Structure formats: structure tokens, C-alpha cells
Amino acid sequence: xxxxxxxxxxxxxxxxxxxxxxxxxxxIEGGGTGPWKSVAVGDKxxxxxxxxxxxxxKAYVEKNGKIPVLLYANGACANNNLEMSRLLSEVxxxxxxxxxxxxxxxxxxxxxxxxxxxxxxxxxxxxKVNAIMGNGERLTPYTEAELAAQAAEREAALKAAAAAxxxxxxxxxxxxxxxxxxxxxxxxxxxxxxxxxxxxDEQSEYYHLxxxxxxxxxxxxxxxxxxxxxxxxxxxxxxxxxxxxxxDMEMSGASKKSLKNLHTPMLYINxxxxxxxxxxxxxxxxxxxxxxxxxxxxxxDGHHGTYYEKNAGAFAVVAxxxxxxxxxxxxxxxxxxxxxxxxxxxxxxxxxxRKNW
Length: 357
What we know:
Layout: H1 2-16, E1 22-26, E2 38-43, E3 49-54, H2 57-64, E4 67-73, H3 85-92, E5 97-101, H4 109-122, E6 131-132, E7 138-139, H5 144-167, H6 186-200, E8 210-220, H7 222-230, E9 238-242, E10 266-270, H8 278-287, E11 294-298, H9 313-326, H10 335-338, H11 340-346, E12 351-355
Parallel strand pairs: 4-5, 4-8, 8-9, 9-10, 10-11
Antiparallel strand pairs: 1-2, 2-3, 3-5, 6-7, 11-12
Helix pairs in contact: 3-9
């Protein structure tokens, strides 16, 4: 009897944590510009991911029907979605339920802009005249003096490390420090499995609110490779590859063979020749089969797009307009991808390519 009671209690405790439980939440950049103010959520039953969704999800569903899903993988395949938090918040405000790899964390403005400032100045594309962050700060490339100072600082650090190693060479060798945790492509599908279960669970706050027939996957840089690695999954209806492409590389479970498994309309957007992924994206373009519709956009923004701009700038617009078209059937938003006059009017400096439509 005692064993039966313990078993029952264990099952009850396990059941408590299987359904969605919003544990923490925050509004980012005013909740986006869309009609459904968004919120970033940490869920106790999905500690490996952050959820971005309309704050009043039930109101959205009552008016529009079940909400489409976006799976997101980070640049550098990092376990942190801070860099894209503004873009994900913005897209969610237009009526999307986003599952982003990386645990929930506080994302205050100062941390966001501090992280992006060095990145943008260090990767400043020569093709871009101005870089203005969402907080209004105008950035310029590092000067020659600043670059020299950084190089000197690195050299001094290397010399100090070499001296310390020489001094301690006879001491017991310290244990190797484990590499920082990296993510894996399967986490995109694990999140999809999780929300599938939540949608069917009467106890979950997401019960019958999720449209599992409308699922997109998006990744930036290394995260784009993670998307290509799982793009074969039939539940995914479209993919967005931002500042990425596999080319002749093998990365995060993807290779050029992964392109043979594509089955959905594909969007590639890169930052032009200043983007380190530019050649890879073009390589994928030439290899994608003739039965797969593809749009490829090249901008002048370099590898880091417009993610540091207010509400993530034009790259956020591209993401939500693509999904509006592909997942919600809003044909008017197809103009950005299929109408040359529209493209020349609103994005005259961008290059658009499309095939198999």
C-alpha cells in the first residue's frame, strides 16, 4: 500500500509539471508595433526555451482563430536569444507564437544595446552609411586608433597568459574547463513536440489555441544551419534563413545534402557582400531543387542585419510579412517578395531573386 501511495504521489508530481506554467514574463520594447502587444515568457515546463507571444493570447484566438507557430534558432547556435529579442517580440505582436531556443532571462534595454554596440561597430559594413540603434545612438566603425588599442590589449593578455603558464608549468595541471553549452538542431523539433502536447492538454493554458498546421522555422547565422538540419520535418510549412546558408560547409547537423530534403517555400535574406554568409546563401540558391519555391534578398546591412534598430528594423518587417503571406494567406504581403514595383519603391537598394514560383 505504501509503495502504491508513493507511486501515485510521484505520478501526481510529474503531472503537475507537464503542462504549461508561465513562471516569468516581461514586455520588450513596448510589446512591439503590432495590434497584439507581445510578451516574453519563461515557462517552467520548457526551461530550455523562451516563448514570445501576444500577451492576451485568448483574445487573439477569439478574433483570428488559432495562432501560427514560429520556431527560432540563434546566431552562433548560442543558448541565448537576447540579440534577437526585439525582432521576436515585434513579430509576436503581429500574431505569432514563437518558441526560441535559449532559457528565459531578463532582457533590459541597457544589456541589449551594450551587447549589440560592440558587434555592430566591429562588423560595420562599408556599404552602410549610418548605423543608428533603437535607442537613438549613432554608431560609427571602430577607428584605427581603437582597433590598435584592442590589438594591443589582446597581445598583452596573451603575454600575461603565457607568463602565467610558464610560472605554473610544474604545478598540477588544472582540469580542463568544459566548453560553453551549445545548442543542437533537434531543439527546434523538441519545442514543436512540446507545444503539440500543450495544445492537446486540457490543463494547459495553450489548450486548443495553437495552429499546428501553420508552423514556420527561422534561424540566423549558425541557427540557419540548424533550421536546414530539421527542415525535412513535414510539420514545418516554410523556412526563413537569415544571414545564413550552408554552402559547402557542414555545420550543426546540416550540409549541402540537407537541401535535397527541403519541401517548403524558402526565404533567404542576407546583408549583401559585407555578410560572411553571402556566398553560402548564393551556393544554396544554385543547389535548391526546381520544385522548391525560393526568394533570396540581399541588403546592404552586413551579417547583423537591422536587429539592433528600433523594433529590429526592416529585417523584422521581412520576417512577419513572409509569414503573413505563407502562413496566414495575406496575399497583399506577398508584394514585398513578388512585386518588382513594390520592391523598387520601398527597398530600392536591395536585390531580390526568386525562382520556382
